[in-house]
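Dear Dr. H.,

I hope your travels went smoothly. While you were away I took the liberty of generating a structure for the chain from your last submission, since the lab meeting agenda had it listed for discussion. I wanted you to have the full record in hand beforehand rather than looking at slides cold. The sequence, exactly as received, is reproduced here:
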Amino acid sequence: MKKLTPIKSIRKYCLWCCNGSTKEVKLCPIYDCPLHPYRMGKRPNSQALLNLNSQIGNEDSKATSFLTPVKAIRERCRDCSTYSTKEIRNCKHTDCDLHTYRMGKNPSRKGIGGNKKLNSKKGHSDSSNKIVDRSMI
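The corresponding predicted structure, in token form, is as follows:
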């Protein structure tokens, strides 16, 4: 089985929620769902986020106040598990499209990126990032 990206997982979950109807997903009236901005399987542009803010009745909010797809999945899982971290961790619904991302992390990105301070604590030095002028050597 092919592993889905967080946004594609959200799309598939929304289709499940709306009984497979793409029209129902598009017309979804549940604006307070954390998955709502990503329900179409794409990242929403700033105009779409502003439109969503006006539909919610929160027109003063900035368009950048929405969660990332993985964090939105985490919020949905928190709602499903009555806000219990233990329930999320021990979730038995492995057939759920959001299950892979339920902890708010993307397992496909494990070990990618990171914090420079964290790397320096592990014994890695920042000396490799310094620019050296070869003419002075």
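Two observations you may find useful: The mean pLDDT is 81. Residues 6-136 form one domain.

With kind regards,
E. W.
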